[in-house]
Amino acid sequence: MTSLEDRDMGIFKSGGVVIAVKDSGETSRLADVFTEQYGLIRVKAKGARRPESRFGAATDQLTYIQGVYYMREDENIAGLSAADVIMGFPNIHKDLIKFSYASGLAEVLSANLPAGQPQKVLFNAFLSALKDLEDIDKEIIEKFFWAHLLKFMSLLGYRPEFLICSGCSVGKSSDWMFSVENGRIYCKDCSKSLRDSLFIQLDGGEARILSIFISADRSVLSGLNVSDSQMKTARAVIDAFRKYHTLPENELKSLRFMDQVTKERTES
Ligand SMILES: [Zn+2]
Questions:
Q1: What is the pLDDT of residue 193?
Q2: Residue range 130-263 in CATH 1.20.1530
Q3: Percent of the chain topping pLDDT 70
Q4: pLDDT by residue (tens digit) across 19-76?
Q5: pLDDT of residue 4
Q6: Cα 268 to ligand 1 centroid, rounded to whole Å
Q7: Average pLDDT value for residue range 103-109
């Protein structure tokens, strides 16, 4: 596999998912596309906002496309010359909750992927995540979102450990301390010698759920029982771990927006 810098400048093709979009000029769009072959590329789609644009819905956020791109030597933004929609994820696009969670995953990728470096495993993980969010029932979407986010963290180089104590290697405990800083768990005794670290307390079941989250596929995740309080702890752990190690340092925009909307709905 070649990175974008290695290959000859010119025309190239790849499947990819549009992860971020913004307007450019009167009628164009700038998009971050997470491509299968070249990783993250920044793309300009000329005239994409015209009603009769040849791109149609292919430059909409969270759309899986087959794109033809061109690169000029003096530019670091590729041009999009043609694009076909492979998967449009209609359920994600018509449901605010699904869309917010899917955008949250895209937001993390957009902020942390290095440009022009192939990330095939992460690309496939992202595509699976979108297919899951598209298909699954909304009742279990929170579990899927946090599990996929933890998987992304692992693939971005921050793989946490939830199985054994990092101090003494003991594998069973009902009382763990998770270090947000180094992504490892410690038994009560070992955690005492690490007083300055940022710790979150976990019980045995919560640690087990988090370790399953890292590698679970759809059928395992669907069958995994996670109570409300376990979900709350898992969310706190993954959220703190993500903020500490990757960008953005604060709340994800899409989740903030969703919290606001659901709050307004319950209040009215
Ligand atoms: Zn220990």
A1: 86
A2: no
A3: 96
A4: 999 999 999 999 999 999 999 999 999 999 999 999 999 999 999 999 999 987 767 8
A5: 53
A6: 49
A7: 97
Quote the pLDDT of residue 6: 47
State in Å: Cα 176 to ligand 1 middle.
Answer: 9
The Å distance, Cα 101 to ligand 1 centre, comes to 36
Q: What is the pLDDT of residues 200-224, one digit of tens each?
A: 999 999 999 999 999 999 999 999 9
Compute, in angstroms, the gap from residue 239 CA to the centroid of ligand 1.
24
Question: Near ion ligand 1, which residues have CB within 5 Å?
Answer: 165, 167-168, 187, 190
**Looking at residue 236, what is its pLDDT?**
97
DSSP the chain: ---TTTSPSSEEEEEEEEEEEEEETTTEEEEEEEETTTEEEEEEETTTTSTT-TTGGGGSTT-EEEEEEE--TT-SSEEEEEEEEEE--HHHHH-HHHHHHHHHHHHHHHHHPPBT---HHHHHHHHHHHHHHHHS-GGGHHHHHHHHHHHHHHHTT-----SS-TTT-----S-EEEETTTTEEEEHHHHHTTTTS-EEEE-HHHHHHHHHHHH--HHHHHH----HHHHHHHHHHHHHHHHHHSS-SS--HHHHHHHHHHHHHHH-
Phi first, then psi, for residue 184 (nearest 5°) are -125, 160
Whole-angstrom distance, CA of residue 96 vs CA of residue 18: 18
Alpha carbon distance 116, 258 (integer Å): 31
